[in-house]
């Protein structure tokens, strides 16, 4: 029996979140080669997110890493530098299974991302034909739209006081899958840069978690890689998507430890 579009495309992160399982992600902003996907998979990560907001990666590099991730069986997300529809559609066409959208301030911003990421009738994303998600096979257009709409995640960042004030309205937007707390930028927005365990940040977590529960959305967090205790508290509160750190931080940490080890011989 011929495989359908939906059967050929699975988003492993979305499946794990539906089972209320913990998802661990590695951020990629240094290593611009396809090997990073296999390294992340071997290390035990469920997902990588390619940080185009804070790197010099081109669309070509981003697409190559996304396709390599699909091939080794981990879920590729891309943090886009803005919510411009043309950029969102291009990273998704390149192989991403979701976008992480920064600078969300309102439900209107969130809805704009949904429209850019989803095909009709859920959005107005343009269709290009064969895509890497299906190994460039063709299926009936309606099947492909349904499969991609189901598999593609829209993840919006809560990283400012303005976004937090509108968190319930943002969570209520149809098509948004996850609210992702950008802890470092949220601290800066509150005028307390670097104070990740400040009471106002803990309150922001609680408010965002409550909004996610109310509207049936998943919850993620970034910026806690150097604070595993805080990350653990976040998971206990109900967060299930944790950005564990960057390729740069992992490389620097391991290299520093090895240099120290050899100095001490």
Could you walk me through the main structural features you see in this protein, from its secondary elements to its overall organization?
It is a single chain. By secondary structure, the chain is α/β, with parallel strands linked by helices. The chain has a single domain, classed as Alpha-Beta Barrel (TIM Barrel), CATH 3.20.20.60. The protein is 48% helix and 16% strand. It has 13 helices and 8 strands. It has helices at residues 5-8, 12-18, 35-43, 59-72, 85-93, 107-117, 141-151, 161-165, 167-171, 183-189, 199-215, 228-237, 247-263; strands at 23-28, 47-51, 75-79, 98-101, 153-158, 178-182, 218-222, 241-246. An 8-stranded parallel barrel has the order 1-2-3-4-5-6-7-8, surrounded by 10 helices. The model has no long low-confidence stretch (mean pLDDT 94).
Counted by DSSP, the helix tally is 13
Instruction: Using the CA coordinates, give the radius of gyration.
Output: 18 Å
What level of helicity do the residues show?
40-55%
The CATH H-level superfamily is Phosphoenolpyruvate-binding domains
CATH class: Alpha Beta
- What would the average pLDDT be, to the nearest integer? 94
CATH architecture: Alpha-Beta Barrel
Could you tell me the number of beta strands?
Answer: 8
What is the H-and-E element order?
Answer: HHEHEHEHEHHEHHEHHEHEH
CATH topology: TIM Barrel
Largest sheet: 8 strands, parallel, barrel
Strand order of the largest sheet: 1-2-3-4-5-6-7-8
Distance between the termini: 62 Å
Percent of residues in beta strands? Answer: 15-25%
Low-pLDDT windows of residues: none
Q: Number of domains in the coordinates? A: 1
Gross morphology:
globular
How would you classify the helix and strand content by structural class?
A: alpha/beta
């Amino acid at each position: 029996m011929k495989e359908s579009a939906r059967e050929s495309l699975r988003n492993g992160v979305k499946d794990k979140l539906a089972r209320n399982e913990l998802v661990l992600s590695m951020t990629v902003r240094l290593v611009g080669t396809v090997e990073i996907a296999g390294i992340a998979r071997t290390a035990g990560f469920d997902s990588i997110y390619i940080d185009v907001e804070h790197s010099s990666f081109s669309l070509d590099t981003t697409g190559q890493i996304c396709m390599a991730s699909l091939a080794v069986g981990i879920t590729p997300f891309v943090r886009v530098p803005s919510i411009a529809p043309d950029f969102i559609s291009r990273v998704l066409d390149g192989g991403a299974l979701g976008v992480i959208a920064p600078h969300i301030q309102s439900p209107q911003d969130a809805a704009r991302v949904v429209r850019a990421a989803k095909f009709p009738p859920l959005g107005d994303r343009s269709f290009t034909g064969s895509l890497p998600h299906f190994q460039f096979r063709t299926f009936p257009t309606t099947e492909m739209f349904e499969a991609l709409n189901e598999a593609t995640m829209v993840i919006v960042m809560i990283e400012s006081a303005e976004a937090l004030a509108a968190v319930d309205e943002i969570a209520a937007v149809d098509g948004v899958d996850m609210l992702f707390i950008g802890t470092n930028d949220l601290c800066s927005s509150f005028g307390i840069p670097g104070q990740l365990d400040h009471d106002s940040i803990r309150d922001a977590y609680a408010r965002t978690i409550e909004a996610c529960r109310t509207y049936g959305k998943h919850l993620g967090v970034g910026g806690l890689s150097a604070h595993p205790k805080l990350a653990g508290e976040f998971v206990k509160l109900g967060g299930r998507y944790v950005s564990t750190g960057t390729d740069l931080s992992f490389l620097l940490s391991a290299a520093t430890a090895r240099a120290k080890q050899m100095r001490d011989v």
